[in-house]
Amino acid sequence: MALPSHQKATGESVYICISRGAKKYHSHKCHGLLRCTHEIKAVTRAEALKRKYTACKICY
Questions:
Q1: What does the pLDDT read at residue 11?
Q2: Which pLDDT value is given to residue 12?
Q3: DSSP conformational letter for 18
Q4: What does DSSP assign to residue 29?
Q5: Rounded to whole angstroms, how far apart are CA atoms 33 and 14?
Q6: What does the alpha-carbon distance between residue 30 and residue 13 come to, in Å, rounded to a whole number?
Q7: pTM for the whole thing?
Q8: What secondary structure letter does DSSP report for 34?
Q9: Distance separating alpha carbons of residues 24 and 43, to the nearest angstrom
Q10: 30 — phi, psi (to 5°)?
């Protein structure tokens, strides 16, 4: 899955799906992200945790 260059992972970035039902954060290669039909955003792990996301069981 190719993401726009402004969303490329750097350092400790994780990926979240910006939708109401999304609850997990993912690595950039996780196939769990393929289910996201909304915006995918790169954030720090700390930011994902702050937003109440938990680690994906597939990639973490």
A1: 52
A2: 82
A3: E
A4: T
A5: 11
A6: 13
A7: 0.77
A8: G
A9: 12
A10: -75, 130
